[in-house]
């Protein structure tokens, strides 16, 4: 592949990357939401951890503390004045932030979830550039000579003698 054809292919890869990131962003934030109050109560209850049980949501748990939180959610939903996020924020303020199973999609919580993904992407792009540079440097050196082969063979023999001792 020539340098010119690589430069021609680069914009299409960049466009595919941008489209992929946009689709992931839209897919992760888009929510049609529950249609009726019962669905809203269930949806919110699944996002709150039982303060007493380990690994259970308020929706699954039959602990009295979970029953109290479900009653609070039910009252807030049927009151109709608070959104799902406001109800979750109220519960988090009452019981502590650790009670939320799903982090909020804004503020510091979003940053905590986004930084590892961004770090992974930066690392992958960095590796791609490093591998490309190493491949170009290796191509600039040309094919190995007979002297190179003899040096490698001498090093292998010296290593095998060192291991056997």
In short:
With 165 residues, the chain is mainly alpha-helical. Helix content is 72%, strand content 0%.
Element string (H = helix, E = strand): HHHHHH
What is the percentage of strand-forming residues? under 5%
- Which regions are unreliable across 5 or more consecutive residues at pLDDT < 50? none
Please give the oligomerization state of what you see: single chain
Under CATH, the topology of the largest domain can be stated as Helicase, Ruva Protein, domain 3
User: What is the approximate shape?
Assistant: elongated
The name of the CATH architecture of the largest domain is Orthogonal Bundle
Distance between the termini: 48 Å
SS field, number of helical segments: 6
Mean pLDDT: 83
How many domains is the backbone divided into? 3
| Name of the level-1 CATH class of the largest domain | Mainly Alpha
What's the alpha carbon Rg, rounded to whole Å? Answer: 29 Å
Summarize the structure in words.
The protein is mainly alpha-helical. It folds into 3 domains: 1-30; 34-102, Orthogonal Bundle (Helicase, Ruva Protein, domain 3); 106-165, no CATH class. It has helices at residues 3-29, 37-46, 64-79, 84-95, 107-141, 146-164. α2 crosses α3 (64-79). It is elongated. The two termini are 48 Å apart. The relative contact order is 0.06.
């Amino acid at each position: 592949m020539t340098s010119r054809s690589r430069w021609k292919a680069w914009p299409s890869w960049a466009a595919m990357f941008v489209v992929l990131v946009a689709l992931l962003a839209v897919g992760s934030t888009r929510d049609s939401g529950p249609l009726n109050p019962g669905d809203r109560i269930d949806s919110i209850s699944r996002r709150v951890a039982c303060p007493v049980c380990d690994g259970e949501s308020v929706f699954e748990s039959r602990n009295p503390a979970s029953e109290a939180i479900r009653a609070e959610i039910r009252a807030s939903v049927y009151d109709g004045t608070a959104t799902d996020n406001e109800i979750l924020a109220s519960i988090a303020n009452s019981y502590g932030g650790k009670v939320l199973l799903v982090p909020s999609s804004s503020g510091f919580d979003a940053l905590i979830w986004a930084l590892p993904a961004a770090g992974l992407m930066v690392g992958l792009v960095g590796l791609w550039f490093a591998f490309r540079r190493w491949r170009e440097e290796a191509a600039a050196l040309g094919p190995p000579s007979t002297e190179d082969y003899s040096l490698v063979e001498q090093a292998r023999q010296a290593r095998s003698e060192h291991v056997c001792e």
